[in-house]
């Protein structure tokens, strides 16, 4: 093989790899990972589903600041006296609005369509928003807030599910709501997911034969928003709200692999791609917020005029 032919063969994949790495690096610069502790994410995110047999080696938290006007429908003065109940309710409401923006991103809507194609199940493109995310104002009784297929705001109480203490699922039952945006918890919405056992066990089997990696058992996503605040030194820019997106992966502990640091996981490149996927969701959700606000205002005006 001549050197010129070899150059023709290697140039396209090298160029593709370069642009992929450049895109990943750009996302990582825009949304750097935060320290993983109580100030950035909840203990529930960091705790595996089965602590006695699993560990959570991969956890990342990302955030960005958005203008207060993009998420709020009402005025809020940071220096004015507010009761703790009022501040908690504002934060819970912002958390709910941010959750809607996250799960209405194009990338997750495509996930919904692909999952529906694979499982051959019928689904509305907004199936995962309809009557699923709860704004739990008192951490006791869930008030269902959603958007139906006609983009109308709907509210109600699923008494049957509440009586059975069932956890709500969405995105074709792939995601389970573990914790709703609540006044009692500052960390917002927490959802979990799980790979089929057959797929996980297959990778555990080939790992026993020497394959260097294993598949995670499942994981969690956490979506939260702060109360509005002024950034020191940038007060003239107005108030901002910090929105966050965090993810965690659970792995089975295999005794023959040694201590936790020696346990096999997915490749580092795959973990980096997962981080890029979460960062892309964050970026798209920020773009969706003004659209959700405009829709909400239009619905409020429509309801007022109808009354």
Descriptive notes:
The protein contains seven helices and nine strands; from the N terminus they run H-H-E-H-H-E-E-E-H-E-E-E-H-E-E-H. It is an alpha+beta fold. It has one domain. A six-stranded antiparallel β-sheet has the order 1-9-8-7-6-5. Strands 2-3-4 form a three-stranded antiparallel β-sheet. A hairpin with a 7-residue loop joins strand 2 (134-135) and strand 3 (143-147). Helix 3 crosses helix 7 (268-306). It is globular. Residues 123-159 and 297-301 have low confidence and may be disordered.
- Integer average pLDDT: 75
Percent of residues in helices: 25-40%
- Described by its quaternary structure, the protein is single chain
Work out the strand percent: 15-25%
Question: Which spans have pLDDT < 50 for at least 5 consecutive residues?
Answer: 123-159, 297-301
Q: How many distinct beta strands?
A: 9
The biggest beta sheet reads: 6 strands, antiparallel
Order of helices and strands: HHEHHEEEHEEEHEEH
Based on CA atoms alone, the radius of gyration comes out at 22 Å
What separation lies between the terminal Cα atoms?
Answer: 79 Å
Q: Please give the count of helices.
A: 7
Structural class: alpha+beta
Principal-axes shape call: globular
- As laid out across the biggest beta sheet, the strand order is 1-9-8-7-6-5
The total domain count is 1
């Amino acid at each position: 093989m001549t050197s010129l032919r070899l150059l023709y063969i290697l140039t396209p994949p090298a160029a593709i790899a370069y642009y992929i790495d450049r895109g990943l690096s750009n996302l990582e610069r825009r949304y750097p990972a935060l320290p993983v502790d109580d100030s950035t994410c909840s203990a529930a995110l960091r705790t595996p589903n089965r602590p006695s047999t699993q560990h959570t080696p991969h956890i990342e938290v990302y955030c960005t600041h958005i203008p207060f006007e993009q998420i709020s429908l009402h005025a809020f003065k940071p220096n004015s006296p507010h009761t703790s109940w009022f501040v908690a309710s504002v934060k819970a409401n912002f958390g709910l609005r941010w959750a809607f923006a996250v799960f209405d991103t194009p990338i997750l809507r495509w996930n919904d369509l692909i999952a529906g194609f694979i499982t051959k199940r019928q689904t509305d493109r907004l199936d995962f928003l309809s009557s699923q995310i709860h704004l739990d104002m008192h951490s006791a009784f869930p008030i269902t807030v959603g958007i139906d297929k006609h983009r109308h705001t709907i509210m109600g109480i699923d008494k049957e599910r509440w009586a059975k203490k069932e956890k709500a699922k969405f995105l074709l039952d792939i995601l389970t709501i573990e914790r709703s945006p609540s006044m009692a918890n500052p960390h917002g919405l927490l959802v979990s997911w799980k790979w089929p056992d057959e797929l996980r066990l297959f990778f555990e089997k080939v790992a026993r034969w020497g394959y260097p990696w294993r598949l995670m058992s499942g994981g969690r996503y956490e979506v939260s928003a702060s109360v509005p605040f002024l950034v020191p030194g940038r007060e003239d820019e107005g108030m901002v709200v910090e929105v966050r997106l965090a993810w965690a992966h659970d792995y089975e502990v295999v005794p023959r692999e040694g201590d936790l640091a020696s346990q096999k996981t997915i490749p580092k490149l795959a973990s980096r791609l997962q981080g890029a996927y979460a960062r892309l969701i964050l970026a798209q959700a920020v773009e969706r917020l003004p659209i959700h606000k405009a829709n909400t205002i239009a619905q409020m005006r429509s309801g007022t005029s109808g009354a």
